[in-house]
Amino acid sequence: MNYQSQMMKIGNRTMKTCLLAVLCAALDLSAFAETNETGFVSISDGKSLAGWHVSPKTGHSRASKNTSGGRWVVEDGAIIGSQDIPGNGGIIITDKKYSDFEVKFEMKNDFGPDSGLFLRSTEDGKAWQAMIDYHAGGNLMGIYGEGLGGKPHVRNFSFTDKVTVIDPKKTGEPPTPLPVLPEAWPYFWRHGQWNELRARIVSNPPHITTWINGVKIMEWQEAEVRHPNEGGIALQVHGGGDHTREFVRYRHIQVKELKGGKQQ
Fold it and tell me: What is the reported pLDDT for 37?
C-alpha cells in the first residue's frame, strides 16, 4: 500500500469515528428502554423485589457459607446489588421460569464489580450468561457458560484499566467482529449514564444474541443440549474481593416471551 492510500485509509477511519461520535453524542441512549416495543412486559415494578428472590445457592455466596446471596434493594426505580459482606455475592432470580425470550434493561454499574445476566438460570446459578463483567479485563454482552464448564466463552472486546478504552481482541470461536470502532467506544457507551443491554435466547441447543444500545454485539449457536429448556432470569453480584461499597444498578427490566424465535 502506497503512502497516499494509507492516508486515505486513515482519513476514512477518522471520518467514521467522528461521524459515530457525533451521532452518539446527539442520541439520548437512556431513551432506549422507554420505547414501547410490542410484546414486552415489565418484570420489575421499580418499587419492590416482587416477582424476584435472592438465591444464596451459587458458588459466589461461599463467604457466607451460602446463607445469604448478597445485598439487593430497590432505590429510585432500580434494582441495586452489592456484596453484603466482603467476598459474598449471589444472584437475584425471577420466580417465573422462561424458555425462549428476549430481555432488555438499562444498566448503570460502578466500574469495578463483576456482574452478569443469567439466561435460563437454575437456583445454583447454572446458566447461559450474557456477560456484564464491568471491570478491567472484563467485557459486556459476551457469552459464557456459567457453571457449564466455562463453555462457551466468546467475546469481541475487553476493557482496559479505563472504562473509556477497550481492547478489540476476540476470544473464542467463532470470532465475532466488533461493530463499534474502539476509538468511538467512549461516545457509544456512556459510563455513569443509563445504557441499554439486551439478550435473546431461543431453542435448545440455544441460539443466543446480545445487543448494546441497539447494536448487535454477539451471536452464538450451541451445538448440543447441555442445559434445561427453561429457567429463571437472574442478575449476579460476583463473589471474591471486597466490593461491599461498589454497586450494580438495573432498571426498566422487560421481557418478551417467544416461541420458536417468534413472539407468542
Answer: 81
- CATH superfamily for domain 30-263: Exo-inulinase; domain 1 (2.60.120.560)
* Closest to 242 in 3D by CA, of 63, 93, 57: 63
- Give the model's confidence band at 34: pLDDT under 50 very low, under 70 low, under 90 confident, else very high: very low
Judged against a pLDDT cut of 60, whether residue 33 lies above it is answered with: no
The one-letter amino acid code at 243 reads H
Query: CA 189, CA 107: separation in Å to the nearest integer?
Result: 11
Q: What is the pTM of this model?
A: 0.87
Dig out the grid coordinates for 22 from the structure.
457525533
Lowest mean pLDDT: which of 26-30, 86-90, 182-186, 203-207?
26-30
| C-beta neighbour count of 224 within 10 angstroms | 7
Residue type, 56: P
Q: Please tell me whether residue 23 adopts helix, strand or coil conformation.
A: helix
Contacts 24+ apart (CB under 8 A), 172-180: 172/142, 176/217, 176/218, 176/219, 176/220, 178/217, 179/215, 179/216, 179/217, 180/20, 180/215
Enumerate the domain spans of the chain: 30-263
What's the one-letter identity of residue 91?
Answer: I
Distance CA 138, CA 166 (A): 10
